[in-house]
Amino acid sequence: MSQPGEEPSPYSQRMPCSLHHLVWFRRDLRLGDNPAWAAATQQADEVTALFVLDPALFDRAGPFRQQALVAHLEGLDAQLRERGGRLRVEHGDPTRVVPALTNELDADEVHWNADTTPYAVPRDANVTAALGDKVQEHWGTVIHEPGRVLTGKGTLSKVFTPFYNVWNKTEMTPWATGEGDAIIAADSGAGLPRLVAAQENVGGEDAARNRLHHFLGRIDDYLDTRDLPAVDGTSQLSGDLRFGTLSPREVAAVVGETTSGRRGFVRQLAWRDWYAHLLFQNPTMPSAAIKPEYDAVSWRDDADEFQAWKDGATGYPIVDAGMRQLLHTGWMHNRVRMIVGSFLVKDLLVDWRKGERWFRHLLIDADMSQNIGNWQWVAGCGTDAAPYFRVFNPWTQSRKFDANGDYIRRWVPELAGLATKAIHQPHLAPPLDLAAAGVVLGDTYPHPIVDHAFARHRVLAVYQAALGKS
Ligand SMILES: Cc1cc2nc3c(=O)[nH]c(=O)nc-3n(C[C@H](O)[C@H](O)[C@H](O)COP(=O)(O)OP(=O)(O)OC[C@H]3O[C@@H](n4cnc5c(N)ncnc54)[C@H](O)[C@@H]3O)c2cc1C
Q: Using a 6 Å cutoff on CB, does residue 363 contact ligand 1?
């Protein structure tokens, strides 16, 4: 961007009477089925495609999400180059950058796809206040926008199934589709940061669509395999949905509902919409429990135990496997997210907000609405229909969902030599079996940092006290 007193960039020189629109990309990093992009390229003669690298978000993201973002932005830029333009990347606070660039370009309209988080909503309101009626806000990040899926009483359901029943029958609000023939501005602005070890060929819309089509080969088994972390049974599209390299409506349409596996998958997209709607309606969710009585829980918050959880060194193999998958890849299987979350909150009595922040830092797909909604579900303080006394037994979960121990062997290799019957609870294995597998408890692999039966009684007592049930 030019500074005050500088000559404006040559790309901001306008043809007389031509319409110039700006599209501010945020978490919709695609050109296909993107209502903001479709509307702008159809309405304007020239379009500037803008991404603002906001340090308040970028600096807090862990390495996996930073790399994924840059890779997706490179992919978007490559698509724009094919059309003769560039992605313009500017750095700074969008509430200043977007109005300043709008003025500099003398843009007639500014388009974006709305977001639901307590960071995005006031940010967008500030930009709207600065730009007034130049703003065209679209949806494009969820299948149904907040406010569209309501109970008969006109409220957002706090339980998933009634929400889903209405969601499934709700007509989609029409949104702009296709792409117009506007000229795309070719100023790349300040450009993207260079990141070490960014993966190649994973970013952008084409790569995302390839992942979707790859998954279609397995989708009909989804209900049988989605809970098995050792199996490639889920789509791993959460990062694409988070960055918007795929449109959720397009994913739902491509998948369809012709088999139970496909219907089960689309139901998960309804969970995604639901958590987005919940956060939009409850902007205090990041810090306050939806069920406020749960904020009276006396957390132990033991720093060493929290560290052991983060490091994958709790002595609970299924928990350690999950936490190491997260540390090494920035992704974790959903079933294991539930197990490690429950272990942190219920077995260690660490405040769910601490786990949420650690996940948010490391996850490629970290998304405030999904992460907070799921953490509150795990802690039982949100929208979970189950009673507070449901406490996952990590060993039972391990035996049920990783029956052969393959997932544990992959992520906790120091236990790989143990027989399947011993791998879930190595602390109960006979000393000779441990020795044969090269496992020395307390040395090569930790003892359990807490006894689950004891921890279960403890958390029930603490929750009961908070809820006034003791
Ligand atoms: C403690 C915890 C934290 C989580 N944090 C996040 C997060 O920050 N971002 C995120 O996208 N998901 C989060 N999830 C939900 C879920 O674990 C991931 O969406 C899923 O593991 C992604 O893998 P997938 O794409 O292979 O899922 P699939 O099984 O293929 O599901 C398809 C899509 O449906 C949506 N979906 C699936 N499960 C859920 C769910 N439980 N809640 C909401 N949407 C769902 C996702 O968009 C997912 O990509 C969290 C779950 C837990 C238990």
A: yes
- Residues 59 and 130 reside in one and the same domain: yes
pTM (2 decimals)?
0.95
d(CA 415, CA 428): 13
Supply the residue whose CA is at minimum distance from atom 6 of ligand 1. 371
pLDDT tens figures, 302-320: 999 999 999 999 999 999 9
Q: Are 46 and 20 in contact (CB under 8 A)?
A: yes
Ligand 1 atom showing the smallest separation from residue 365 Cα: 9
Asked whether 225 and 268 are in contact (CB, 8 A), the reply is: no
Residue 257 · residue 266 · CB < 8 Å: yes
For the domain that residue 62 is a member of, what is the CATH number?
3.40.50.620
The rounded distance, in Å, linking the Cα atoms of 92 and 95 is 9
For 54-67, write each residue's pLDDT tens digit: 999 999 999 999 99
Q: Are residues 64 and 113 in the same domain?
A: yes
Ligand 1 contact, 370 CB (< 6 A): yes
Q: Residue type for 256, please?
A: G
Does any domain span residue 363? Answer: yes
Domain extent for 269: 205-281
Task: Please tell me the total number of residues recorded for the chain in this structure.
Answer: 470
Evaluate: CB of 238 within 6 angstroms of ligand 1. Answer: yes
Nearest CA to ligand 1 atom 21: 334
- Residues 328 and 274 placed together within one structural domain of the fold: no
Pocket test for ligand 1, best of 374, 375, 377, 378 (most atoms within 8 A of CB): 374
272 lines ligand 1 (CB under 6 A): yes
* Closest approach atom of ligand 1 to CA 222: 29
- ∠153-157-161 over CA atoms, to 5°? 120
Question: Residue ranges of the chain with pLDDT lower than 50?
Answer: 1-6, 8-12
Query: 365: Cβ below 6 Å to ligand 1?
Result: yes
Taking the C-alpha atoms of residue 26 and residue 127, their distance in angstroms, rounded to an integer, is: 14
268 lines ligand 1 (CB under 6 A): yes
Looking at 115, 140, 165, which one is the last position of a domain? Answer: 140
The maximal CA–CA distance of the chain, rounded, in angstroms, is 85
What's residue 194's pLDDT? 80
